[in-house]
Amino acid sequence: MKMLVTGATGKLGSKVVEALLKTVPASQLAVSVRNPEKAEGLRARGVDVREGDFDRPETLDTAFAGIDRLLIISADGDNETRIRQHTDAVAAAERAQVNFIAYTSLGGGSESKLFLAPPHIATEEAILKTGIPYSFLRNNWYMENEISSIQGVLAGAPWLSSAGSGKVGWALQQDYAEAAAAVLSGNGHENTVYELSGNLLTQEEFASALGTVLGKEVSVQQVDDVTYSDIMKGAGVPEFIIPFLVEIQKGIRDGALEIKSNDFEKLLGRPATPISVALTQIVNEIAQTK
Length: 290
Hints:
Elements: E1 3-6, H1 11-21, E2 29-33, H2 40-44, E3 48-51, H3 57-63, E4 69-72, H4 79-95, E5 100-106, H5 117-130, E6 134-139, E7 141-142, H6 147-154, E8 159-161, E9 170-171, H7 173-185, E10 192-196, H8 203-214, E11 220-222, H9 225-234, H10 242-253, H11 263-268, H12 275-289
Helix pairs in contact: 1-7, 3-4, 4-5, 8-12, 9-10
């Protein structure tokens, strides 16, 4: 049986590959990457490194050839670009006659109202239309997405939010990666949907947990979207990113990520890493990069 992970040199993809290599022989693992030279380290460990560029669908036909089980990791970019890239990847998987497709989707999937949802909804639909057995890994929110805000707190700023009382199921990328590896390499995951979410927390609860880790009180500044945007602009955040951040806050406020689930336990035999442990890890990683 041959498995393939797309985007294997990315932040999530690299963690998935490392998780797989703990349980699967390197000879059974292939990766699809835009720049194969960045994966030379994997090739040296016996992994089959293939060129696969979502912007050049013809490369995917070669990349997916002879693959039994495929993990498509969602790409970065605007919604229109991602929809094109993902549906091209699904079409290539169908042409290659893969037997199983796992896909890293978004919490809530087809029901999500988050502005990031359209590419995930379109990709899930495209996979369903192929008739190929699938598993949708609906990832809630990466703890790592908050690194810049945590850095702000470390510099003395309050925890800024316009998300109100909306809750989020934060978890480490490592947790999501291990769950994806378990599905790709495991049995009994055909035609499944997993809502992968940590304990649901408000911004205040998250900030309180961060304060415990840092040994100081972290104040929370709840503002409206306009004020949030103005503060971000004043802090030097690039203007093209600000509408994206505001929409995330709005989505959280509206409950888009308030999805309670114990699916991590189903896949990993444990819940997501506790918030205190996860935040300690991230704070330590920030300290090491200084």
